[in-house]
């Protein structure tokens, strides 16, 4: 096997998507026409899922699982804001416009923007959208992905309107983790991440802000039939069972970290599970080391109904997390790179 083929990443994306250009650049576009440029110039519809729920409802925890299993990029608005605080940078945010929108904060002659964000978070308040939307937009562009979980956003109507206005992206759906306050409070008090806002006083303020500001956003999307409400008061694994069902139509990433793993997978002839009644087909992008190439003709069929039972048959290894079953028809890939053709690939 050639050395350069050691690191292989296959990414599966929806073939039916259309290309326009980068995230949030074109004000003429609307709704789900939004897309981003793939490495090969291929078309990729941008899929955004807003993940909402009270503080401590388990958004971050479940997002980590969704990332592993469905190849989304997780963007936590709170994490981006905290990163902004620790960078201590002014980052061009010190514009008058944004500052004027921050209520009840006294400014000395110079106040770093990061300090303002920190003060607001300490108070359980919502940072102005100018800041958060810019951070999200930048992170989306930098990710190179087209599937995003935007966690903890939009927190209020202002967030929602600003995001839609700036990016022209309409979310695919809203994942709402519903959890009683007592349970959320218990979780936050034992989260132990050293967060300035995980103390009883700020937690209670955050609950109030959630009810007053974030519930209306959830109701807004609810009225459009876009909300998946999940009972988050259950153990992590049980919550994820429900989440998996919701995400199963959104495909899985196919990652092969090395041929060693692929060879161990081809022992399992799950290609037989190919179900052509499911007409969703996916384009496979193949990246090798620094090279990037796309197998336009490579098609993966995924049958969501067999994902979980089949994945249970495959032993888990350190580098492969089992998320989805896929049958691969990929003649060029096998001819060029493999001695043994893969019947079946897992991520
Ligand atoms: N279903 C659950 N049951 C019990 N504890 C959970 C559950 N989900 C998350 N946690 C824990 O609760 C805390 C808050 O979860 P986190 O995912 O950070 O919430 P959020 O992002 O909504 O604020 C973390 O310490 C996490 O490990
Ligand atoms: N869209 C957002 C998201 C978070 N923030 C601020 C205010 C929130 O209380 C903190 C923490 O948010 P984060 O989503 O990380 O955490 P919790 O869900 O509250 O546990 O960040 C914001 O101002 N605007």
UniProtKB/TrEMBL annotation:
Any GO MF annotation of the entry: ATP binding
GO biological process: 'de novo' pyrimidine nucleobase biosynthetic process; nucleoside monophosphate metabolic process; pyrimidine nucleotide biosynthetic process
Gene Ontology cellular component terms for the protein in this record: cytoplasm; nucleus
CDD domains: ADK
Residues given in the record as CMP binding sites: 159
PROSITE patterns according to UniProt: ADENYLATE_KINASE (PS00113)
InterPro entries in the cross-refs: Adenylat/UMP-CMP_kin, Adenylat_kinase_CS, P-loop_NTPase, UMP_CMP_kinase
Domain of life from the UniProt record: Eukaryota
EC class: transferase
Keyword set includes Cell cycle: no
Skewed-composition ranges (Basic and acidic residues): 18-31
Record text on cofactor binding: Binds 1 Mg(2+) ion per monomer.
Pfam families on file: ADK
Catalytic reaction list: UMP + ATP = UDP + ADP; CMP + ATP = CDP + ADP; dCMP + ATP = dCDP + ADP
Cofactor requirement: Mg(2+)
PANTHER family for the chain: NUCLEOTIDE KINASE
Domains as described in the record: Consists of three domains, a large central CORE domain and two small peripheral domains, NMPbind and LID, which undergo movements during catalysis. The LID domain closes over the site of phosphoryl transfer upon ATP binding. Assembling and dissambling the active center during each catalytic cycle provides an effective means to prevent ATP hydrolysis.
Subunit structure: Monomer.
Family indicated by similarity: Belongs to the adenylate kinase family. UMP-CMP kinase subfamily.
Function field: Catalyzes the phosphorylation of pyrimidine nucleoside monophosphates at the expense of ATP. Plays an important role in de novo pyrimidine nucleotide biosynthesis. Has preference for UMP and CMP as phosphate acceptors.
Protein's UniProt name: UMP-CMP kinase
């Amino acid at each position: 096997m050639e050395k350069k083929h050691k690191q292989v990443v296959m990414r599966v994306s929806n073939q039916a998507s259309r290309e326009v250009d980068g995230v949030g650049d074109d004000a003429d576009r609307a709704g789900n026409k939004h897309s981003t440029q793939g490495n090969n110039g291929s078309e990729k519809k941008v899929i955004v899922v807003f993940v909402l729920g009270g503080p401590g409802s388990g958004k971050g925890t479940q997002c980590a699982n969704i990332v592993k299993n469905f190849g989304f990029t997780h963007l936590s608005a709170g994490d981006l804001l905290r990163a902004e605080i620790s960078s201590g940078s002014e980052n061009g945010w010190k514009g008058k416009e944004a500052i004027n929108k921050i209520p009840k904060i006294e400014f000395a002659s110079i106040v770093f923007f990061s300090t303002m964000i920190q003060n607001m978070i300490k108070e359980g308040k919502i940072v102005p959208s100018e800041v958060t939307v810019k951070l999200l937009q930048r992170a989306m562009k930098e990710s190179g992905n087209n599937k995003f979980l935007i966690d903890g956003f939009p927190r209020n109507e202002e967030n929602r309107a600003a995001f839609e206005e700036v990016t022209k992206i309409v979310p695919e759906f809203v994942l709402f983790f519903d959890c009683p306050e007592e349970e959320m409070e218990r979780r936050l008090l034992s989260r132990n991440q050293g967060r300035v806002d995980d103390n009883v006083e700020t937690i209670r303020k955050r609950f109030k802000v959630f009810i007053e500001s974030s519930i209306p956003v959830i109701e807004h999307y609810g009225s459009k039939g876009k909300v998946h409400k999940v009972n988050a008061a259950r153990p992590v694994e049980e919550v994820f069972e429900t989440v998996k069902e919701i995400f199963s139509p959104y495909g899985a990433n196919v990652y092969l970290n090395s041929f060693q793993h692929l060879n161990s997978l081809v022992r399992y002839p799950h290609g037989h599970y190919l179900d052509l009644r499911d007409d969703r087909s996916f384009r496979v992008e193949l990246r090798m080391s620094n090279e990037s190439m796309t197998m336009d003709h490579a098609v993966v069929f995924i049958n969501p109904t067999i994902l979980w039972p089949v994945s249970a048959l495959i032993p888990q290894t350190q580098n492969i997390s089992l998320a989805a079953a896929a049958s691969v028809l990929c003649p060029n890939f096998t001819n060029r790179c493999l001695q043994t053709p893969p019947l079946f690939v897992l991520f």
